[in-house]
């Protein structure tokens, strides 16, 4: 358990310290405290049922010498400061220093008061959740106020709503210390102040070769209220009106959505019961069967059972984070396999039945299995016939086109009675016959 202290270590180094495993303090240069007089400190539990997933906050009340005003005489003012309870400082440049420390002037306006009143005590009243919290401060005038020097001492009580303080810290213009060679001056930053909430919600992962941008909210991964709430994802919440896990950053302040989120305790008692899914899976003897079962979150432990008997890791069964492997299957492996998710939280253990598989041995003679195969064969045969017809038509078209262009010559027979013999050819033929006959006679 950490303890927070308001101390002054030396004349030049007042600080807000946390005493626990490590020591943290306010940075001297970035958030200076000038002669502070600490009055009180209050803890506001914002983490409980907070849709934005914020950390608890510590509010500090004190008075100090104002350094942001150019005045001949130093002016004392009242302050309110805020720091996150879980602030552990920076990893590099702000080690052992607060990174969430902010302070603002706290005014309690009273008529005829020339100087700001100084806070003397503070009281926190929260009738409901943290949004209803109100700070009541007791103020008295400064003793150097000449107007009230001869008047009886008095006090004033001013109330400050925590939402108004949050608005100032989130949207008001910040002041920065401009340091020159000879002097330093506090100036107001007039540029646009970035919104602290909801933020971009993007995660950047870099390496030597590339930079990857990804969203920090993957709410669509959670399909049930149990998974969404038990995951304790600070960016996600279960919307009971739409029955879906949505990003907290997408919720408009004016909407009346009933969002369920429990970051600290993981209380999912308001979630409706989850209906288990049924699936049929067949297998061949001797093969390895994988039954998938996706856990609702990384914190869940998966348990398997077959026919109401718990399955443990063995040479036959191997249980993985999101599946079950059944090795060298046989007829005896048929049955009902149930996947159960068990998740522990501060509010108790939640057992969720995710999926039930009916594992059957493959049967070739079963009509329901043979008919689809015959149907597939008919579709294949019909496809082949269509391809053959198309190729035939293409070939016929090519032949007709080549004949039309004269690339192919079709031989034709002469008509009967129309052919006449050439006398010259006949005489040549007769002469050749005579020569042949004469040769025969000589021989």
Automatic annotation (TrEMBL):
Protein's name according to its UniProt entry: Semaphorin-4E
Transmembrane stretches, start-end: 382-404
Signal sequence residues: 1-20
Pfam families: ig (PF00047), PSI (PF01437), Sema (PF01403)
Location in the cell: Membrane
Organismal lineage: Eukaryota, Metazoa, Chordata, Craniata, Vertebrata
Annotated keywords: Disulfide bond, Glycoprotein, Immunoglobulin domain, Membrane, Signal, Transmembrane, Transmembrane helix
One GO BP: semaphorin-plexin signaling pathway
Sequence ranges assigned to domain Sema in this UniProt record: 1-199
Positions of the Ig-like domain: 272-356
SMART domains from the UniProt entry: IG (SM00409), PSI (SM00423), Sema (SM00630)
Molecular-function GO terms, alphabetical: chemorepellent activity; semaphorin receptor binding
Family as reported in the entry's similarity comment: Belongs to the semaphorin family.
Annotated GO CC locations: extracellular space; plasma membrane
Main localization (coarse): membrane
InterPro entries: Ig-like_dom, Ig-like_dom_sf, Ig-like_fold, Ig_sub, Immunoglobulin_dom, Plexin_repeat, PSI, Semap_dom
């Amino acid at each position: 358990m950490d303890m927070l202290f308001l101390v002054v270590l030396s004349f030049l180094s007042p600080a807000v310290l946390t005493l626990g495993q490590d020591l943290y303090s306010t940075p001297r240069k970035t958030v200076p405290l000038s002669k502070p007089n600490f009055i009180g400190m209050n803890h506001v539990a914002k983490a409980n049922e907070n849709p934005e997933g914020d950390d608890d906050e510590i509010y500090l009340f004190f008075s100090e010498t104002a350094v942001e005003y150019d005045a001949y005489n130093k002016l004392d003012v009242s302050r309110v400061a805020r720091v996150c309870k879980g602030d552990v400082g920076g990893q590099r440049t702000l080690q052992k220093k607060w990174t969430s420390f902010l302070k603002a002037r706290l005014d309690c306006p009273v008529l005829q008061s020339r100087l700001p009143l100084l806070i003397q005590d503070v009281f926190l009243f929260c009738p409901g959740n943290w949004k209803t919290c109100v700070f009541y401060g007791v103020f008295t005038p400064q003793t150097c106020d000449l107007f009230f020097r001869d008047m009886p001492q008095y006090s004033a009580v001013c109330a400050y709503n925590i939402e108004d303080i949050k608005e100032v810290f989130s949207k008001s213009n910040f002041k920065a210390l401009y340091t020159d060679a000879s002097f330093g001056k506090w100036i107001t930053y007039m540029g646009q102040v970035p919104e602290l909430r909801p933020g971009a919600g993007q995660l950047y992962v870099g390496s030597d070769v590339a930079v990857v941008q990804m969203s920090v909210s993957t709410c669509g991964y959670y399909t049930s209220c149990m998974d969404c709430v038990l995951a304790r994802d600070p960016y996600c919440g279960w919307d009971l009106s739409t029955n879906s896990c949505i990003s907290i950053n997408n919720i408009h302040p004016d909407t009346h959505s009933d969002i369920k989120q429990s970051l600290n305790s993981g209380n999912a008692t308001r979630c409706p019961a989850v209906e288990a899914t049924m699936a049929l899976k067949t297998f061949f003897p001797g093969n390895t069967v994988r039954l998938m079962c996706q856990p609702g979150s990384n914190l869940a432990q998966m348990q398997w059972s077959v026919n109401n008997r718990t399955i443990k890791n063995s040479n036959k069964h191997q249980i993985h984070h999101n599946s079950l492997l059944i090795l060298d299957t046989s007829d005896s492996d048929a049955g009902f396999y149930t996947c159960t998710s068990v998740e522990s939280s501060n509010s108790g253990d939640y057992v969720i039945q995710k999926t039930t598989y009916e594992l059957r041995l493959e049967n070739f003679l079963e009509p329901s299995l043979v008919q689809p195969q015959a149907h597939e064969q008919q579709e294949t045969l019909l496809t082949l016939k269509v391809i053959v017809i198309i190729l035939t038509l293409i070939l016929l078209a090519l032949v007709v086109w080549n004949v039309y262009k004269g690339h192919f010559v079709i031989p034709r027979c002469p008509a009967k009675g129309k052919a006449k013999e050439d006398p010259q050819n006949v005489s040549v033929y007769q002469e050749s016959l005579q020569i042949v006959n004469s040769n025969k006679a000589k021989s």
